[in-house]
Design a protein that fits this description.
Chain lengths: 315, 72
């Protein structure tokens, strides 16, 4: 039942749904593995990031909401790692056997969320990026098990986004110090999320994800979808977002050099230093951000000890 | 830790079809019930059950995740 890469590309473009690893060509399996690993790692690393920020929740109710989101993210990660196991990868190795720099999540989840505004803007911006990417996968993927799994994931990510929007609105309406803090979060997280969508289409290396119908939209199209809901939201809330609608070209255009360098210590984009190359961006991403080791360690730390207590088997 | 794969089935309302909604890895049946209920909490399910994947017997196919009986 196995197909060649070319045969499977033609079949999935014609609507064929892949249901088992036995049907996958080597290229399909590789592209799906990369996609699922990025998805799983992103969900997993959002959990310690949100967890450490949840301590800034202003009430017991908001603590509950923040932790409900963390619970969802961990479940989504678990589901994605389960899908990876079903195509021959080991969740044990992926979660507990890798060094912090080997995880494939975006650079945004290597950053500290330092206050309640950072957390709710992360829900408003990062989770919106998650929905943008995963809705596209849900609508277009040729892999049946992933499509089914995403029903739950998309439903819950929408709740995270609403949580972010509601709280962004509340902080903005309060004005004064609350709005200033919110604006500072927007200032570092808007460009962080724009960069998350990756290389512009004219530079994109061939990944196979579109050819194998593992997604439907290109990086630039997804970036536009994200901006089409984020920029109007910021405008409604009286927040400055560094992008505007260009009537002539009918697209959102960034008001700063893209890509540009980021100073993680001051959490400021070095816009005045001008545009940098994507090679420089990849170098920064590969170097990982300040919270990378702390977040990964928080996920991995108790596995071996509790494993020994239970059955002598360690990770 | 040695965990077992369980498949999770649920129906949302009376009269609905029991559907496969996901999977969890758990130490045993008791933890599987808790993990399934806490993980798949996106609906107020009328009925939910878990099945060790190793107990699923394929009838008309010999490929796909269920074919390996939960072995990874």
């Amino acid at each position: 039942m196995a197909f060649t890469d070319e045969e499977l590309m033609a079949k999935v473009q014609d609507g064929y749904m892949v249901e088992s690893p036995e049907e996958m060509s080597p290229g399909y399996k590789k592209a799906l593995t990369v996609q699922l690993t990025v998805q799983a790692d992103t969900e997993l690393m959002s959990a310690p990031s949100y967890w450490m920020a949840a301590r800034y929740a202003p009430s017991t109710n908001t603590q509950v909401s923040a932790h409900a989101i963390i619970q969802d993210e961990l479940a989504h990660a678990n589901i994605a790692y389960r899908l990876l196991e079903d195509i021959g990868e080991s969740k044990e190795k992926l979660v507990y056997g890798r060094q912090p720099h080997e995880f494939k999540h975006p650079y945004g989840f290597d950053q500290p969320l330092d206050n309640w505004a950072d957390l709710v803007v992360a829900n408003g911006f990062f989770d919106r990026a998650g929905i943008t990417l995963l809705s596209d996968v849900y609508q277009n993927t040729s892999y049946g098990p992933l499509k089914r799994a995403l029903v739950k994931v998309d439903m819950e990510e929408t709740f995270h986004l609403r949580h972010g929007e509601v709280w962004m609105r509340r902080l903005s309406k309060a004005g004064g110090e609350a709005k200033e803090m919110l604006q500072r979060s927007v200032d570092w997280m808007f460009p962080m999320t724009v960069e998350w969508f990756g290389l512009p289409d004219e530079m994109k290396r061939h990944s196979g994800q579109l050819d194998y119908r593992l997604k439907g939209l290109t990086n630039d199209q997804l970036r536009q979808v994200w901006m089409a809901s984020t920029v109007p939201l910021c405008e409604q809330l009286g927040l400055k977002a560094p992008a505007h609608w260009d009537e002539a070209n009918e697209e959102y255009v960034l008001d700063y050099p893209f890509p540009c360098e980021y100073d993680h210590e001051s959490k400021v984009w070095l816009i005045d230093d001008g545009e940098i190359s994507w090679d420089q961006v990849f170098t920064r991403w590969k170097g990982r951000g300040p919270m990378n080791e702390i977040y990964v360690e928080s996920v991995q730390r108790s596995r071996s000890q509790v494993g020994r207590w239970l059955n002598g088997a360690t990770a | 830790m040695r965990e077992i794969i369980y498949d999770v089935f649920a129906r949302k309302d009376r009269g609905d079809t029991l559907a496969h909604i996901g999977y969890i890895d758990a130490l045993d049946d008791a933890t599987a019930k808790v993990y399934a209920w806490k993980t798949y909490d996106e609906q107020n399910w009328f009925e939910m059950c878990v099945v060790p994947r190793s107990a699923i017997i394929l009838v008309n196919r010999d490929d796909g995740p269920f074919a390996r009986g939960g072995a990874t």
